[in-house]
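Exercise 7. Predict the structure of Histidine kinase from Olleya sediminilitoris.
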Amino acid sequence: MKNFKLILICILCFVYCNTINAQQNLESKKEATFTVKGEVIDKDSFDPISKVNVQVNGGSYTSTSLSGDFRINVKIGDEIMISHKDFETIYYTVKSDDDIKVEVQSLIKGVSYKTKQSKVHSFESIIDSALFYKKISAEKSIQFITESIPKSNSVKQNAEAFEVLADVYMHWKQYDLAVTNYRISIKNVNSKDVQLKLAKAFYHNKNYQESLALYNSLKSPDLSNWQNVIRNEGLGDVYVAIKQNTKAETAYKKGLEVAEVNNIKRKVTDLNSKLGQVYTSEGKKRKAEVLLENSVALAAQENKTREVEQKIKFADFQNEKRSYSEEIKMRKDIINDIDIIEKDSIISNESSLTKQKQNYKIGNAYFLQKEYNEAIPYLEKSIEEADVKEDLIVKKDATKKLTDAYVESGNFTEAKKTFEEYVKTVDQLYIKKEQEISQAARFNKSIAEKQNRITTLETDRKLTLSQVALSEEKNKRQQLIIYSLIGGLFLLALTAYLMYKYIKQQKLANNLLALKSLRSQMNPHFIFNALNSVNSFIATNDERTANKYLSDFSKLMRAVLENSEEDFIPLQKEIELIQLYTKLEHFRFKDKFEFQINVDKNIDIEAYKIPPMLLQPYIENAVWHGLRYKKEMGLLDISITKKQIGVITITIADNGIGRKKSKQLKTENQQKHNSKGLGNITKRVSILNQMYKDKVDVFIDDNSAEGDVGTKVVVTIKKD
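Solution. The predicted structure, encoded as tokens:
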């Protein structure tokens, strides 16, 4: 009997605790306020109904516009009362943040709500159109906002127009223009929501200090629960960007606490994921794993797309901690999930939710485990899918990795084929990037013109308002006009400055893209020539020599690939590269030339920077077009001397047959073929000199110091 009573007491305590927790959760949900949008229309004619009273029980109040729309602040569980003289009052309980559509039946038979005014596009209806086109067409959306500004009859409406305009710019990644328009909106009405958006725009525009200052100026007691979550998440993002992980961790934890207490599920998922990524960067792998697993489980409660997004982040984490088997298993599940998602929606190539990307990463994981035969089918599948989706970036990466897999597995024939395909893909990608840059320039020009139009309209609107006020206060007329003109000029100057800044950044981006393309062309050209040498040894059945050559060649390739992404490397590394390369060429043509490399001991070779693989094409030309054709033993002399303070010269001199005689020996086909190596070097030097103010100079002349003419290349390098 006593045991029965004890069990009964435990059950009652359990039920009581659950009831208390449920009540606390319900109260937490109710605390989160948000804006809900709705419309009221006639059930039969579908005409919008204006001037309908919309009131929250004991809270906010508003009425519908001419287009039948309304917006009102509510909480979960609030009751909205919708009333009008022509229909029965409707009561609606808020259960989510979804839009509300109310269809009503008139009490008076034959009444029509359609008026002449409803045909006129109001400010609200135009703004709604702008929001509709926000993610579809930037030009159309901005055009609607341009039309809305003359119809604005209050500072509140004007603030809303510029907020929507800034939202459009944010979606299309025009962050500098978004900053400008959020500021204009805040000048009209100082809204906490817009301030949070401005702080986020600062972050995306890499104005990190401005973003931090604005987030820190917003105090928690003045913000709603949702706004507090957004503020702390934004602070965490900025701290991650400036590599202050401890502060980022603190901010994310604060945001997560508020989100959990108020049951803001989407943000609980996001903050678990972001906090896990911070722990990963700090090396706290176990903590990171727990949080990332939580984010997957939480996202699964929302929708399939959110779940797959978090799974991808978790798979990336497994890759980082080298748990390749677990990564492969998860990515295979992800591919099955993507098949489900693709039935209901179209996935763009920019999304991480593409099968070509996941197959590539599976292949990469097998490659890292040195299971090359397992990696090859997934990489081939990634290339096939990338071809179908016209995803050149993934195709490039997958083709390069497939080449590496064939090389590692010893299948050099297939490696050569895939490498040739890789070179073609790089060329196609470069052409596509040029087209995208051109399209982006046209898009930005169009956006800038529309922004100038809006700026002009805003200035005109201010001038009009000033003139109305001046009719009442003549004494202030001149002062107000001057201030308006100054404001307009300031906006125009700011727009001009932002355009100049963008053009400058675009030019730099073009130069960097060109350099990257030229570097990518240099490596295939160099590798092709080296592989020809290996082929020559194999053709003569000199397997031992070929193996020794390949061993030295692999050392050189490792050094080349390590430096392939850099614009400049220390001179010492370049000397090591040319020593390796010249040794390889001498290894093949021992009976044709000797070489010597002399470096002035007074030169601090660590203090000078040089473009990688700058000297190799000149050495290659000296050997292949000069010394190779000499009947007697030739000499290749490479010397590095100090010209003056901060300037050195690198001389590559040979006593070969000379440029003129070499040209005469070329076949007709060889004469038609341009040297890619020297051509690419010339272009690289030209671009680098534009970017770094004449850092490198190259001079080529005949070398008449010896009996034969020979060739001399003099490269002049300036210290940084």
